[in-house]
Each structure stands twice: as structure tokens, then as C-alpha cells.
Amino acid sequence: MENADRRTIVITGASDGIGAAAARLLTSAGHRVVVVGRSPEKTAAVAHELGAEHLVADYTRLGEVRDLAARLDETCARIDVLANNAGGILGDRSKTDDGFERTFQVNHLAQFLLTNLLLDKLLASRATVIQTSSMGARLFGHLDLDDLDHDRDFTPHLAYGTAKLENILFTTELHRRYHERGLASVAFHPGGVATNFAAESTSFMRPLYQSRIGKLFMATPEQGAAQLVRFAQTEPGADWQSGAYYERGRVARRTHPQARDAGLARRLWERSAQLVGMAED
């Protein structure tokens, strides 16, 4: 790869699964990859294997997300790609020290905060922001702006599906607000991938993902990472559509009806900004 084509790519949730697989593939393609994960040991191990930089942040603590943004701003002169890949389906309902339901905070609010804290650098770099979403948005999600923590109706699947729906709406609104200034955004479903997904959950999906038989019918982490790698290395407009949600390598034909609601996307952005203390004037 010519040096001019080398990109600085930040991947969260990169200590395992499709994040680690994408980090390996993108490093081997000659890019500068910053590996971000929750586990200090696992994150360092992946980074050491690749000869890459790494940073650690626990998304259940928004203070650590702010520290992560500060470190990235300090160490990266530019960020060409921010892959918001951290997240997953979690266990029984609980609140973080920040006061938010864990699934909502880890899958949406922390990613919203990180992206906005890095926004000036992302705009200057004409960056791509990638959201790892899920078809779970369509299967399980329902967004109620008056109950983002699902205090009234929590189940692990509803919380997860709604968070993945929020990933799509965030992508839509990021495109609307900033695409004319050079920023691109995209969300995708990686498919059923043989990873540690659902390992911390009480979900019915946990036994499937933990079983040998279940894994036989799933994609490998490398296959699951293929779309992320594609978006990270190719050009919006020419190779893919900014602001869209992808399944199986193409713009999804079916989405949750709320995912097409531009007004809801704007209101979710405004509410999220209020919750993380970044409300607009």
C-alpha cells in the first residue's frame, strides 16, 4: 500500500470477535490501527500481536469514554475511520454509576459521546464513522424517548434491539448533520458470528453462541468483519452509501419502521446530547 493510502483507523470493541478480526485484516493491509477494548489483558494481547497501539476504556463509565477521547485526540493527528464496534447483549437490568441502563449506555450513549468528543478531528479528517448494528433492531427494538432505560418494560432483548436501532438512527442523523462537511457514516449487521457475543447475557441466545453445534452454522469473525473492513478502506458515494444501514453487503431492504423516521433520529440526538452534557444552545 502506498503511504498516501494508509489510514488511521480506531476500532472499539477490538479485544475480541469481529473487532479483533477487523484490526488484524486492516493492519495486514498496511493501515495504522488503534485497538480499543474493555479488558486490559485481552486488548494488550491483540495489540501486541499486531504491533499496534491500544487504549482501554470501560463503556459502563462515561468518564473513561471522555478519557479515551482525550487520549485519541492527543495521539492521533488525524482519524480517518472511527469504528464504533463495542457493545453486545447484556444480562439482567442494572444501572451504571452514570445512572443509565447498561445496555443503553454501552451500545449507544458511550458511542454517541465518543463520536461527538472527536467530532472536530473527524470533520477535519473527512472521516468515516462505522456503527456495528444488528438485525436485532428490527426483531426486538422499540424506541420510546420517554423511557430510554426501559424502566417500564425491560428485557435483555428489547434493550439490545432498541440500542441497535439507536445505532441506525445515530448513523442517519450523523449523515444529515455533517455529510456536507465531508463526514460519512454507515451502520451494518455483521450476521451471526461465532464469537463471545451474549456471553454476559441471560438471553436465550447465550446457549446458542456458546454451543459447538451453534457455532458450526455461524460465520467466522473474519467473515463478520468483512463489511467493517470494506467500509474502512473504500469510498462513500463511490463504493457505498453514507447514512445507510447494510445487511449482507447491501443496503437493507427491510428495517424497523422507526429506523426510517428522520424526526425521531433528530430527537434521539438531542436527547442523547442532553444526557451526556453536550446539549446544543
From TrEMBL:
Q: Which SUPFAM superfamilies match?
A: NAD(P)-binding Rossmann-fold domains
Could you list this entry's UniProt keywords, alphabetically sorted. Oxidoreductase
Family annotation (PANTHER family): PHOSPHATIDYLINOSITOL-GLYCAN BIOSYNTHESIS CLASS F PROTEIN, PHOSPHATIDYLINOSITOL-GLYCAN BIOSYNTHESIS CLASS F PROTEIN-RELATED
Protein name per Swiss-Prot or TrEMBL: SDR family NAD(P)-dependent oxidoreductase
Q: Which organism is it from?
A: Promicromonospora kroppenstedtii
